[in-house]
Amino acid sequence: MNDVGNASKDESQNEKLIRLLEDQLAHSNQQNKDLSKQIEALTDQVRHLTKLLYGSKTKNRNITHQTGKVHYLMMTRLLGT
């Protein structure tokens, strides 16, 4: 009889533990959803600020190309090649 009582008690404790873990998982999932929304909003803000700072992709490519030319000319003059 004692073994049956202990088995029943163990099952009850296991069920409580399972419910607790399920609640923690649900809470973690909700936090992940909330954080994902925040990350998406921050990504949009960074994208917008980057466009304001650097302009369009075409303009950025031209600036990068011109900057690369200047760096190349400076290095060739410094190295004397």
Query: For the CA atoms, what is the radius of gyration?
Result: 31 Å
Order of helices and strands: HH
End-to-end Cα distance = 95 Å
**How many runs of DSSP E, i.e. beta strands?**
0
Helix count from the secondary structure assignment: 2
Integer count of domains: 1
Shape: elongated
Quote the average pLDDT: 82
Provide the β-strand percentage band.
Answer: under 5%
Which class of secondary structure composition applies to the elements?
A: mainly alpha
Largest sheet: none
Query: Segments where pLDDT lies below 50 for 5+ residues?
Result: none
Looking at how many chains there are and whether they match, the oligomeric state comes to single chain
Helix content: over 70%
